[in-house]
Amino acid sequence: MKRFLLIILNILAIYLSISATDYDQNTPFGFCTRSSRTDAASTFDCTGGGCYTYPIPDDYTGKVIVLKSNGQDMKSTIQDAIKQNDIIIFDGSDGDFIVSSNISFEKSNKTLLGINHARLCTQWYITDEIKAALDAAGVPNMSTSSGTGGKLTNGQSVSEQAEYNTRQIIINLTGDDTESYRKSGIMSVSSKENIIIRNITFVGPGSIDVGGNDLLSFTKAKNCWVDHCTFIDGMDGNFDITKSSDFNTVSWCTFSYTDRSYMHQNTNLIGSSDSEATGYLNTTFAFNWWGTGCKQRMPMARVGKIHMLNNYFSCTTASNCINPRKNSEFLIEGNYFESGVKKWYSQSGATAVTWQTDNFIAESKTLPASLGSTVTVPYTYTVAAYSDVPGVVQSYAGATLFSDIHTGIDNSASLHENTAEFPTYSLTGQRVCNSYKGIVIVNGKKYIKH
Predict the structure, then answer these.
(1) How far apart are CA 335 and CA 312, in angstroms?
(2) Strand, helix or coil at 62?
(3) Predicted local confidence at residue 403, as pLDDT
(4) What is the pLDDT of residue 437?
(5) ∠277-280-285 over CA atoms, to 5°?
(6) How, if at all, do strands 424-426 and 438-442 pair?
């Protein structure tokens, strides 16, 4: 009984630590809850796999799996878990999850949750040897304009000089003519909807100009919520949303680069080209932090209606932060640009940009000018005072939830034969029958019962 009470007290402590700030709604909000860019009555119930908090409620009846690292490449394990289950929990207590190449989603309506500092990391990464060879060849000073490249020894044509030389140097050093390393992303969501990803740290190989994968990418993905995630060192981008994706929210996430990154620290692209189909890419960015090493695309966006709400910018290396491009509409309010951030905004071809007066730019006494019609969004929200933004975002953004949790659940996430002689209890302490489904406690340990 004492052990059972300790488990309950641990769970209560977890619940009390989750709501760290009044500004964090801990629920889907913004464009991910809508199906129209203008009509507030056109709502969408963004539920993911049916639950997006931890612990999973004891009355939940969907399929749940808990994964732990095995120290090896887990791409196929993770991809199969996403295919077969509604909720996938990444428990980081046994170390990082290693991924050899990008994981794809085969179905909609999924929730991915990280607990205990779960980190998903690419297997390949940029080495000092590669960076030294690129420096010796003068790659940072080469052209990134189309038409300046050439043909690689593997027969592939590359249009830009910097990318051409980078890829050829890596082929020469590694002997990998297939250039498999260019698939070093973590996940891609294509033509799926109602996906929730929370509290996961994504760690990439370092940014480099090879036309490779992003840490996370959405293409034609709709009504998805990415919340409290940390993105570090994406190869091409940290998190890009393109090709008719729509009605997505990115909240309480952090984006940064370390010394592992070499060039192309372009963190968030919304819309991949000026020819993107219009009417899509409506996206909410709220309480995010663009920090160390970020240089461009925070975000750069085309076509969509982009709501920039209470985000924090401390990226002193930036050459361009918010960048509205062709056919885009931006509503920018309550954001905070830290001292040292000198390149906070530029636009080219935007339809409309509304700079509200409640933004703060430490390096400027005046805000950029609004243009076009006033931009509005079809949902209600509260703008935090810009003075609160640095404190709450630095304290609570990123993968800061669901830590120091002892699940007592193994990778199989199911009851064993030798537990049949013991009574089964729900997480609330009630004894339950054999047909009960969800997380249960048997003989002082927690299991997931299907």
Answers:
(1) 6
(2) coil
(3) 82
(4) 52
(5) 135
(6) antiparallel
Please state whether the predicted TM-score (pTM) of the whole model is above 0.85: yes
Closest-CA residue to 291 (of 211, 242, 230): 230
Q: Are 357 and 300 in contact (CB under 8 A)?
A: no
**Among candidates 442, 439, 366, 443, which has minimal Cα distance to 62?**
439
Q: Mean pLDDT by 10-residue block, N- to C-terminus, for the chain (450 residues)?
A: 46 40 90 97 98 94 97 97 98 97 96 97 97 97 94 96 97 95 97 98 97 97 98 98 98 97 97 93 98 98 97 97 98 98 97 98 96 98 96 95 68 48 48 54 56
Residue 157, token pair as written in the block: 């044509």
Sheet containing 110-115, strands listed edge to edge, beginning at the edge strand earlier in sequence:
64-68, 87-91, 110-115, 195-198, 225-227, 248-251, 283-286, 305-309, 329-333, 352-355
CA 425/CA 442 separation, integer angstroms: 7
3-state DSSP call for residue 355?
A: strand
Q: Which residues of 79-97 are buried (b: 16+ CB within 10 A; e: fewer)?
A: bebbeebbbbbbbbeeebb
Helix (H, G, I), strand (E, B) or coil at 14: helix
Instruction: Give the helix/strand (H/E) hosting 422.
Output: none
- Give the CA radius of gyration of the chain: 23
Length of the chain: 450
